[in-house]
Write the structure tokens for this entry.
Amino acid sequence: MTFSQSREHSGVLVVRVEGQLVVSNRQELKDVVQRALAAGDRKLLLDFTGTGYIDSSGLGALVTIAKQVREQGGEMRLAGLNEDLRSLFELTKLDTLFSIADTPAQALTAY
Amino acid sequence: MPSRLRFCVRRYPAGDPDARTTVVTLSVPTDIDCIEEAVALVTFHCLSGTAARETVRFRLQVALSEALANAIIRGNHGDRSKLVRVRAELGADAIRIHVTDEGAGFDPAAVPEPLGPEGLQRANGRGLFLIRSLVDAVEFNDRGNSICMILRRP
């Protein structure tokens, strides 16, 4: 399972990205989020603590997902990015598009 | 499931135990589900026995993943009768990784920068930019169906 989910007491749905977020599994993540939105979730946290690498398709999927969440009046945050992963967001300036916290715990306090 | 990748490692000069150049070649089917395995295999052989920093491993993984995805999706257009070929030359000073598809090629100079306000909101168009940002140098053949990514050894 690449994307495990759990729900915090505060109602935030946490989706953990284990392994890679790349062209071959990006649709799976989109499906997970779409199902969550359809079920009424509006607070999402994507946890990258267990992520190896992300390719441009994975970054693109995050852009699409963030837009969908915004359009539904929801809020999505990213957390747990190591230095290398964070550099991808900085290089592509996507760090300006997303709410990024250092750790999942820090992200959860911000909702 | 058995691997669908065809893989070969050769050391040059042949028979020399102190050979300074190793060449890794790999044939990858036109299937995005093969990319992760190909990246893991090439990365392992490129960096085994070296004290490469984790950042070098990360850059190699992302750049190669991008190049393979471009070759499979945009180069070979998903045509499963075609292959993508990887050739990694591991020299004393640098790692040179060639990724070649069977497509007609493209003009890398015509690919727009993804950093403008419009590009930022797009779901695609960051692949080549990422490759250029993560490796030390990038070269293309004249036809535009083969990219060479160069990572200099520290």
About this structure: The interface with chain B takes residues 20, 22-24, 52-57, 59-61, 63-64, 67, 83-84, 88, 91-94, 96-97 of chain A (CB under 8 Å).
